[in-house]
## 1
Amino acid sequence: MNPPHVSPLAVFFGAIFTENILLALYLGMCSYLAISRDVRPAVGLGAAVTLVLAISSGINNLLYWRILNPFGLEHLQFISFMLVIAAVVQCLEMIIERYTPRLHLALGIYLPLITVNCAILGVCLFMVIRRYDLVQSVAYGAGGGIGWWLAIVALAGIRQRLQTSRIPRGLQGPGIALIASGIMALAFMGLTGIIRTR
Amino acid sequence: MPQGRDAIRAFVTALWKENPIFRQVLGICSTLAVTNLLANTLVMVAGLIYAAAMSNLTMSVLRYRIPRRIRIMVEVLIISFYVIILDLVLKAYLPETSRALGAYVGLIITNCILMGRMEAFASQNPPLPSLLDGLGSGVGYGFILISIAFFREMLGFGTLLGGTPLAVTVLDYSAGWTRWVLMLVPGGAFFMLALVVWICRTLWMRGQKEPVA
């Protein structure tokens, strides 16, 4: 394995801005559209996704390069990544419930949803394809999570404003949210090329 | 044969009345990512229909044996099983497409459509309607994916099925056609999907009296 010569910091900021996981790679769209009607739950979900991403990308990186790859078991990556993600989500839920019940109340309903959020599996698969090492992977996971957080909170803010505007009936709800995301994606495209991530 | 009619009804409902994309707006991650080339989209759609139908069938057969508490995990494992097969088949027979699709084949596992249909339909219905429900969801998802890809590739590259032996040049640059670069960048996919959602929802609402949630 030869990791690319990119500093983890570049990977981190690249994942937030130039290759935003949501606006450029289209990952985690379902919960993005479903839970962006209001800012507060969007903030909670973003925090939970970031935490799970940073942890599971690190564990999955070790799992892939230390166990699956040396033993020629790469075809098991999907199933083992999913198990790791589910386990991380489950543990995190128990820890948060035990130590910070208030945070658990805020995040509680979103945590189980994260297991099937494509952003998590997506980041883990991209980190393998790009051959990131452990530090780069954690940076990529954390950056990807923060980028997703940024996008969902921004969209929630826009949608709160849209509640009072007159929108054609067929376009209400997801339609207008998609157009808003499209414009955000164009705005983020302006940042392309500032950071080299590969 | 009432069971057969139920099964057909399940197929039609899944295809139009509860179309996963414009009705529920689910599973659009891969919709957007793979739709700038029609050929890749066709492969992705075939894979998704297969995975949706097979995992719905499996879930339905096992529906009395899976404890409620762990069923989400079991659902994920069932889907993963079929997606791994799909991934290996693609790597063996269509290596270039497999490379172009990259991580998005694996992401079928977390496609909300599959989970959603297994949870909502297959866990409560017999195998045959479940199989057809999976097929219907897959086809309903597929036709939207294909129509988006059709316009994105045509306007963006000027070709259809580019990169395959069947490639057709529809809009020629040398004849003065300007590429719509907007269609190729991520933003274009969002606009295209919004347009499809808009059109389909408007048509769909004609048949409904109450407003769409």
## 2
Amino acid sequence: MIEREVEIVNRLGLHARAAAKLVQCASGFKSRVTLVRDSEDVDAKSILGILLLAASQGSFLTIRCDGVDENEALNSISQLISDRFCEES
Amino acid sequence: MSESGTMQIVQGMGVAGGIAIGKAVSISTRVGEVFRIPLAENEVGAEVGRLREAVDHAQGEMGKTRIRASQQVGDELAAIFDAHVLLLNDPAFLGRVEERIRRDRINAEWAVWKTAKELDEQFSHIDDTYLRERSEDLSDVSRHVLRSLQGIAHHELSEIGDDLIIVADDLTPSDAVRLGRKRVVGFAIESGGRTSHTTIIARSLNLPAVVGLAGVTQRITDEVPVILDGETGCLILHPTVEVLTEYRQRKAVLMRKERKLLGTRELSAVTRDGVRVQLMANIDLPEEVRDVVRFGAEGIGLYRSEFLYIEKSPDLPTEEEHYLLYRGIVEAAAPHPAIIRTYDLGGRKLAREMMDTREDNPVLGLRGIRLTLARRELFRPQLRGLFRAGLHGDLWIMLPMVSTLEEIRDFRAYSEEVMAELTRDGVPFRRDVKLGSMIEVPAAAMIADALATEVDFFSIGTNDLIQYSLAVDRNNEHVAHLYQPLHPAILRMLRFVIDSAHLAGIEVSLCGEMAADPRHAAVLVGLGLRRLSVSPRLVPMIKSVIRELDTRTLADLVRSCLDLRTARAVDEHLGQALSGPPEPLEGKVSR
């Protein structure tokens, strides 16, 4: 199992479209992917969980991956977040 | 039978007669469009299946929306629908809904609504405004599922086993249609008035209904034994054995009475002087066609087609559905005609996607034939179905809310178009179905002579004709007393319409409630009407009235009424002539 802390940098935070992209990305991997914020953790393959996490701009999350492709999963998801979900220039 | 609990009687107002004995099903706590309906244990599995089917359907719909959106607003924004599709698949949502169905043994609609509400509550604690509002996405998704669920046949209440009495705080016509089948034997409703659509439906299903039962949904739990008395307007919870026995006897007496009235079925509606009056039936639901024959009506004087539309909601009925329904109706009416009214939507009757805008005064707005002509494409399946069904019997098409001659002409032109299309498609249909105009707008009544030269028949709709002519809403208690069917203005208008039809040699019938009042029916026959259409159950009663009439004296009587100046004067004049003993017929000259 590996994990990494990331900052949510896009303006609107983990809103619906961003959350959808995150779920689609996480669902592409076999590993179990969890997002942790404060003491709360949610399944990154459940959009409802991510929306309820309510991570706005500037909040910090821990991405935790566990499984055969955990490295790829962690890198892809971190990249997506730092790229602001490819939605802002 | 009182099981647990002591007997209680709740008094309301009986709006549809009869007695029902059974178990209560509370579909109270209505929220928006959602009911809570308890399930029997063996229904739970099927209900979960129904939920999954609805989710699949909703998913398909959203997929389509996403494609349309990406074409219209671009892929980036359309991605919002990806979120919706994901939400729909999310076990965190659906799993909870399924669990709720199983745990609480309730219907899928309620489970979806309740789960969404719980999640909404969680969202409301989020600090970030933008993210908090994502609960809207969730509401949108649950609305989609609810819509899909409503398109999928509701679980059959029949599984519960006993005769059921629906206890509800309110019922819309579409709910009543959906629920009023199978094992449902009566409706007990908190709100509601005498003329509500639900009442009409209860009557047409031949089920007792009691309204105005204040607070009853709070007092009832499911499967409590109840008696519903549509005659005295009360609901009895936990009846004692004695009360139950008494009601069983009363029910038997009522049924005997009804059978006796049915005995007149073979008799014809002929006046004492040998004039035949054709008594037809007004029906709303396909199920009622059996009542047409059962109560001895000769044909169908009004079939209100909008109930098909309501029932298929949220989908639009297909051409095939129209065709099969109308075919069944004309075949049931044979050898007599069946008059089918095209959709009378708009006004206060729902017309969802057909209406683009809200109207300040819908009753005077885009409705009836106006809506048909403005949204032709939506009516095409209905018209095609009608022309095709015409092959199977004597089908007449009637247009509602006609106020100008151009509407008839436009409709004919459109019909030609539709028929040309059917020919092109090689679909068999009947070209010469009769086309008639409903006479319910005063303007139509006053140009009846002109209209009569361009239509094949008239059907006078007195309910609206009277309301529009006298500018009175009969449901408004402050002016209801001004709703006077015998107002000289109405009688003059009726005379002109009937005379115009006779002069032009076209058929004329009347399908308003006026025909169902014994004294008014006599006036109508006196005015020269030979075709009346009433609710099937009232046919035997009106028939017995007609068999007592004599058109020779009646014509003079009505002629003298036309010279009177007030409704009261007419009423008194009629009262003296009609309430006395039937006049002995000198010489019995009837043929």
## 3
Amino acid sequence: MPKKRSTTSKRKTQRKKKTKGSSFKRWALQIFVILSCVFLSYCVWIDFEIRKEFDGKRWAIPARVYSQPLELYAGCRYEKKSVIERLKKATYKSVTTLTGPGQFHISDSSIDIYSRQFHYWDGVEEARKLRIKFNGKQIAAISEIDSGQIVHIIRLTPMLIGKIFPLHDEDRVLITYDDIPESLIKALIAVEDRHFFEHFGLDPLGILRSAFINLMAGKVEQGGSTLTQQLIKNMFLTRERTFTRKINEMLMAMMLEYHYSKENILSAYVNEVYLGQNGLRSIHGFGTAAEFYFSKPLSELNNAEISLLVGLVKGASYYNPRKNPERALERRDLVLKLMHEQGFIGAEEYKFARSTALGVIAKPRWNTAKYPAYIDLVRRHLKRDYRIEDLRNEGLHIHTTLDVDNQEIAQNSIKTSLSMLEKERGFKSGTLQGALVIAEQHSGEVIALIGDRNKDKNAFNRALDAKRSIGSLVKPAIYMTALNMPKKYHVLSALDDSKLVLGQANGKRWAPTNYDNKTHGNVPLIRSIAKSYNLSTVRLGMELGLENVIQTLKNLGVTSAIPRLPSILLGALNLSPYEVTQMYQAIASGGLQIPLKSIRAVLDNKGQPLRRYDLAVREYVKPETAFLTQYLLTEVVQNGTAKRLTRELPSLMPLAGKTGTTNALRDSWFAGFGDRLLSVVWVGRDNNEPAKLTGSTGAMQIWIDMMKKIKPEPIVLIEPEEIEWRNYPDMSNPVSSCSQTRPYPFVKGTAPGYINCY
Amino acid sequence: MNNYSPILLLIVLGLTACAEQATKSVVLVPVEERNSPNIDHRSATTPEPPDTAKSKHTNNKPQESVIVALLDDADNLANAGKSEQAAAMIERALRIEPRNALLWHRLALIRIQQQQWQQAITMARKSNALATNNDKLKSENWGVIALAYDKLGIKQKANEARMKQKTQG
């Protein structure tokens, strides 16, 4: 018989078992505690990271650069068709009935507009319905449609002409929660997260439901992730599909929901979600996507358009409406269907929305390549006052002085004229280059700037950086120096245009010649500048003293180094077209030097004013001296080297201007102005070889072509008090008979009693 | 035939040539004294300026209402102490009528408000240059200039401006 185990050994065994069991439990408990601690620490850490990132989240928002608005008022010369063109450029839509901002309706003699709201420096111009009545080539009246009240002046929304992007090339238009359209929220709820406003970051029921729907459909129609999870994935995690990443995503989603409101989360989502690619730039957020695909603000999108964008959330490349329109359409229609099924849109609206085309524009309209030289100028001006990081990331709104219409006219004129000039001279296409600047002479606002004959290029901004000899464009500064001494010089002073030889510091001799290689003896001052004689000009400049001429150039705003050499009297002075424009601005404005500017104001990304670039004036030139110089430059056009203007632009007369040609015909210049617009044009070759063009055969040709379309107002010479007019023989040309007289202006008390006719 | 005819003819021709030559090289007497049909005696000393010098910006009623409206807004803003916004309004008006003497005057006043004395002087002078026959406005401008020079501590110019203000007014 087996021996029974004694009670003691039984107890020992049980004790052993108990000891083993307790050890295991202790061990398990310890492991559990350690793991829990680790897990909790991990949760605390990711909670901290989420809050740090979310609280400190500052999206890098590019600066937005706008053109000047089109200001319309009763009496301004703007035809109906021009206003319509401008509205279309600003992406206004032609409709039969105005229902929302960004629309217009054309009648026989008027246009009804529903203007967009816009933040200007001096306040918000609210969206409103307006009627513009036309009377021939001008606006007769503007009124509010609803009240009938007369409106004195309106500003049509400026055009977005470019952006200054963050370094990581993300593009965003920031949308606050209040600005999110209701239809967008509904579409997101319908498609992406039905219980968004109820769940705690995860939606277990939603996961099950979407799994069932996808199974029934045989394809993935709905995702199981909540909007919160998607936001976490976009903001914090990689796109890898791993179990660990999924766990992290779920944990983080719950933590985010714990700390932040639904509004905060949804707002972040709407601004963060990836919705497309524009070359190297990624499109983030619905605000940017609305502009990118439809060239409209988000607030103006209809249900069909919103649905298209919501459809992109699942795969912006896969459903790209430009590359895969059928797929995009199918996806859009699915979003509409879900919205309808969940009661967010009615049957009729659903039917109508499904019947519409995608409506996506071919390419975005704010392509920076459109006006790269001008944007370059704006950027340089901004750099004086803002750090580059602020420009790239703070979403500043830059209101510039660019006039889009004139900019495009200028660009076309350079392109077509240069091609024509190349053919005439037997040059290969692309041999010649050009640059030009147009400025409002009384405000210094740069309204157009061209740096390259190719509008998309800005490898070298010739308007700002091509410093070339200015040739005879320097002469007004010399004559202005003389006229600033009215007791010694006046418009009819006799100058000596005979042969001249000057000794130089290096021992060599300099013998300038006239363009026609002739001498002309005694010539009146007015004729000397009109015909651009070199000998009389150099002699005059030497009499005045180089220092005085240089001082005049500085008074006119020239800041580049000016060599103290007699050759500067014939323009051996290198300036850019922009600098020449600054120089002529003081003459054109009647003596007030106003620094050229390209920016009117800077606002923050909410439209609050930050800084205004106000009108600042300097008076270095006496008004009577400026007046007399202006008068001489009208003579250049009437009877001098720019006489061709009188034949080509007869209805725009009188105008003032100066031609400039350099040695060996390397550079061709023209500076001309009327009552408000001053423009300087340069033509030449980048390799400094002869362009075979004079000022009047080259640059002036572009100027003429441009002004035929711009139609500037003729110059108005308003003489200062110190000026009087006296009759003297007409000495415009050497062949005058001296029997005819004409009035000439003089500073009071300095008109000569006697004068020779020559 | 008279034997002296060729000689007479030559003499006449010679005299004619001399007369022409004399005309070309003659020093012209002051225009006020000439009795030539080519000179308009009404404007012997101050002739009518050429067309280039006549203002083409005569009263354009529709534009006036815009300028008045903008000026009204500017005045309201200036009175409310918002000088920068008032200046922006006037600059907007200047873009429409850059040669409006009253606008330059108002801008000068705002610069006084902003204590930008030199800007005020330059703008008041610009207004004067455009004011032509408006003696009242010119007088006001000289007042602005005098005040600004006072603030700059340039007493002599301030006094000169005050004198002009009195004579203009």
